[in-house]
Write a structure and sequence with these properties.
heterodimer; A: 407 residues; alpha/beta; FAD/NAD(P)-binding domain; 3 domains; 7-stranded mixed sheet; 5-stranded parallel sheet; 14 helices; globular; B: 82 residues; mainly beta; Ubiquitin-like (UB roll); 5-stranded mixed sheet; two-stranded antiparallel sheet; 1 helix; 7 strands; 9% helix
Chain lengths: 407, 82
């Protein structure tokens, strides 16, 4: 894409698709770029039936979709660089929507690095992309509404989901259940799909066992400790916004989310952000934020304003969600001194404890300096030590040397 | 019948539905350790979305490919390092 488009959207999940659709409808020339081969983001991976209305909307307008391209830097304002499997592309824009979504938060516990211990969304993504799961014994654990969706998906596809271990207490969950009244149809569908799958509140994994791969899991619930054999542990602790690109572009952030105004514009003019990047809020909030960003970025501020009340309602639900699934203190004590915290560089808790800041720990131990660039250990270190990464530098991802020395 | 593709993982032929990711094909062959960590631990996919880099393998001679973001193609040669 050599010529500048009116609007470039980074991320082809719900927020990005909604932004692209609204902007294209408003007459903007739109390009969407995503690191996955196909659009849909994480939640709509594989194009499930409930997403078809949005896929159809994107097809109905003139939007250029570039898949399999990982944005890694901005050589100058108005241009992003992305790497594909065998090339790089230069993406020029006059307005930009960052809809880079979220990733799972992983918390370390003994054994969490064993093969077949995966994220909850991680195992679901594998199952959606060809992993046969029928008859496999799966424990779904961690926290957040994603656990329910994942368990339902895996079960529908033949997995033997033994139970769901949710760290939040039954009292916290009861408040959430009341809040779910606004999402009744979704809740009932999940309940039907999860019939006879125990949902254990106040329960969490303390250790995963195995030699070359996972064999069993130890869990605690109140005073009870038990060990259960399984094939997969799908374990994630809610979500962390992907704000690295926003930070690289100089957008202000607050508590790990991108700061935006009422039109979803960041502190950098003409750069907007929508969806989980602005705070974890789920599908409906992502869609409406994307629509508002797409409209505002096309100059349709009045039309965008009409969507404010619906966004406000969804934000209230998001607040409830984040309160309900707040992480309990006990989880900070799961890793032992020998537990690996940084999986890229195999840095143990013991080695991190010698340091007083993220920067010192990085310099002395290489924690967070491997291929994932702290995208996995960062969320854990933040929870365990209260350290947050202070800067993002290009390239945002490991890229080929040839991508850096173009021309 | 859905379309399928056939690839080779560590010398073993495996048939997958079209559109499947290489990570799923590797697990289907019974290989769980995709690579060894810097201290020699076995590792396999964690995030499933291209972020953790734990699923990296060699595909058609190119090292460090993220198998969870690579779509299976006919005749692909995949090597794990676990």
């Amino acid at each position: 894409m050599g010529d500048a488009r009116d609007l470039l959207v980074v991320g082809a999940g719900p927020a990005g698709m909604a932004a692209a659709w609204r902007a294209a409808q408003s007459g903007s020339r739109v390009t969407v770029v995503d690191d996955n081969p196909a659009p849909g983001g994480q939640i709509w991976r594989g194009g499930p039936p409930e997403a078809q209305v949005w896929f159809e909307r994107i097809r109905s307008v003139d939007v250029e979709v570039i898949g399999g391209a990982r944005v890694f830097g901005q050589p100058q304002p108005g241009t992003l660089l992305a790497e594909t499997n065998n090339d790089i592309c230069e993406l020029k824009y006059s307005r930009l929507v960052l809809a880079t979504g979220a990733r799972e938060r992983f918390l370390p516990f003994p054994g969490w690095t064993l093969p077949n211990v995966m994220g909850a969304g991680g195992l679901q993504a594998l199952a959606k992309t060809g992993l046969p799961i029928d008859g496999k014994r799966v424990i779904v654990a961690g926290t957040g509404p994603l656990l329910l969706a994942v368990a339902a998906y895996l079960r529908t596809h033949g997995a033997n989901v033994l139970f769901i271990a949710e760290q939040a207490s039954s009292m916290q969950l009861a408040r959430f259940a009341v809040g779910l009244f606004s999402k009744r149809s979704q809740a009932f569908k999940l309940k039907r799909q999860l019939k006879n799958v125990p949902y254990l509140s106040g329960c969490w994994v303390t250790e995963a066992h195995g030699k070359e791969k996972l064999e069993s899991v130890t869990l605690v619930r109140g005073a009870k400790v038990r060990r259960v054999k399984c094939d997969y542990l799908a374990c994630g602790f809610h979500l962390v916004p992907n704000i690295e690109l926003a930070e690289l572009l100089g957008c202000a952030t607050e508590s790990g989310t991108v700061k935006v105004d009422e039109f979803q514009q960041t502190t950098v003019p003409n750069v907007y952000s929508a969806g989980e990047t602005t705070g974890i809020g789920g599908l409906e909030l992502s869609l409406v934020e994307g629509e508002i960003a797409g409209l505002a970025a096309s100059g349709k501020h009045e039309a965008a304003r009409d969507l404010f009340p619906f966004r406000a309602k969804q934000r209230k639900f998001a607040d409830l969600l984040n309160r309900t699934f707040a992480l309990r203190e006990e989880l900070k004590h799961l890793p032992t001194s020998q537990t690996i915290i940084c999986r890229c560089e195999d840095v143990t808790l013991e080695r991190l404890r010698e340091h007083h800041s993220w920067r010192a720990a990085k310099l002395q131990t290489r924690c967070g300096m491997g291929p994932c660039q702290a995208r996995i250990c960062g969320g854990a270190v933040e929870f365990l030590f209260g350290w947050r990464a202070t800067s993002v530098r290009p390239p945002m991802l490991p890229v080929r040397i040839s991508s850096l020395i173009r021309k | 019948m859905p379309e399928t593709v056939t690839l080779v993982v560590n010398g073993v032929s495996v048939e997958m539905p079209a559109g499947s990711m290489v990570s799923a094909a590797i697990l289907k062959t019974g290989t769980h350790a995709f690579r060894r960590s810097v201290t020699g631990e076995p590792r396999g996919p964690l995030c499933g979305m291209g972020i953790c880099f734990e699923c990296r393998v060699t595909i058609d001679g190119e090292q460090h490919c993220r198998s969870c973001q690579t779509v299976c193609r006919n005749g692909m040669d995949v090597r794990t390092d676990g």
